[in-house]
Task: structure prediction
Amino acid sequence: MDIRVQEDPFDLGVETSAFAARQKGMGAIVTFTGVVRDLDEGVLHAMEIEHYPGMTEKALQKIAEEATSRWKLGDIMIIHRHGILKAQEMIMMVATSSRHRVDAFQAAEFLMDFLKSRAPFWKKEASGTAADWVAARDEDEDALKRW
Amino acid sequence: MDIRVQEDPFDLGVETSAFAARQKGMGAIVTFTGVVRDLDEGVLHAMEIEHYPGMTEKALQKIAEEATSRWKLGDIMIIHRHGILKAQEMIMMVATSSRHRVDAFQAAEFLMDFLKSRAPFWKKEASGTAADWVAARDEDEDALKRW
Amino acid sequence: MDVLYFAWVRERIGVPKEKIDTVPATVMALVDELRSREARYEAAFADLSALRVAVDQELSDFDAPLDGAREVAFFPPMTGG
Amino acid sequence: MDVLYFAWVRERIGVPKEKIDTVPATVMALVDELRSREARYEAAFADLSALRVAVDQELSDFDAPLDGAREVAFFPPMTGG
Result:
C-alpha cells in the first residue's frame, strides 16, 4: 500500500508504470486520475486545495484498508496533492490491482467515492478574479450508499 | 478516438501520459490495463493471442462509438496486442476521459465488458508443456446484461 | 465466398481460410455442407452452441442468410481483454 | 484542547487554530461556548448542517463527548478527489 499526500506534482505516466511493475500475478490494473479542468473556455482556472495534515493520511489509510478487506486486491496506491494547482494539472490519482477486472474496478470506484467525501480535502476554485470554495454535491454523498 | 491493434508491446506509462496530455477540460481519466498473469507461482506463463484482422478493428470501433453515445466522454483510447506475450507483459489497455468520474468509470467498464466478449480475440495459455485455449466465462457473458 | 476459422476451430479443421464455390442459403446450410465433407469438419461443428459466426465481419446467427456475403468466419466465444 | 478550522470555517473565524482552556462535555457544548464569544463564531456556526466535525482526527458527531479529546476540528463537507 502506497499512500502519499504531497504539495509537489507527480508524473502520472511514471507512477502508473511503477505501480504496474510492482505487481506480481495480477491480471488487472485500474487507475483514476483527477485533473483541474478549465471551467469555461479561455478562462484560466486555478485551484487551491486545503487539507488537514495528520487526519488526511489516517483517513486515506482507513479507506484503503476498507477496500482491501472488501475485494481481492494485489495493491493500492493513492497520491493526493494540496496547495495551488493550475488548470490541466493532476490533482490526485488512485491505482488498484487485482487478479480480475471486476475487483480492480470496484475497488477504484469505492476509493474515489470515499476519498471524495470522507478524506479532509477542500477545494477552492478561482476563475478570473473570483475564488470560491467548491460545494459538496449531494450526488457525491449519495454515491457512498451503494457500498 | 485512438484504437490500435498491434503485435508490438506498448508502454503503459507513456500511453497514459500522452492520453492525459491530449485532454482539454476533462476532470477525470480512467485507465484499465490487462496483464498476462503467472497462473501459479514459479510456473512461467505465456500467452498467445489470435485475432481476426479487419473485424477486430471494426468491432472495437463499434464498441467505442456505443460508449461515446451512452456517456459524456472527452476521449477513448484502446490498445490491444496479439501474438506471443510472456508473463507480466501488458495485453491491452483502455483509457477514458470525462468531466466527471462516474462517466469515465462507467465507460471504461463498459468498454472492457464488451471488448472481452464481443471483439474477436482468442487467448491460448501455456504453462509448462501444455497449451490450451482459454474458455469464455459465463460471468463475462452475464456482465453484458447490466448495460 | 471465403470461409475463415479461428482458434480451436482453425486447429480442428487444419486451415485458417478456404474458398467455397457454392452459395448456401444460410449459415446453417453452409455448416451442413461443410459437415458432410470430412470428419474434421464434423469434429469442429459438433457443438454449435460452442461456436460463434461472423458474416462479412459482423457477428451473426446460424440462421442468417448468406446471399451477397463475401466472408463467413467460425470461431469459439471471444476471450479478449 | 486545540480547536482547528478549515476552508471557509477558517476564513470566517479568522484563525486556523486556537487553544481553549475549558473542557466542554460535548462537541455541541463547545460550539455553544464558541458561539457566545463573538459574531464571527456565530457566523461560522450559523448552520450546523453545513459543518462536519472531527475529534482527535476521526470524523465524529455534534453530540460526541469530549472527555480526553486533545483536538477538535470544524470544517465544511469534504471535496477531495
About this structure: DSSP finds three helices and five strands in chain C. The interface with chain A takes residues 81 of chain C (CB under 8 Å). Chain C has one domain: 2-75. The first strand of chain C starts at residue 2 and ends at 5.
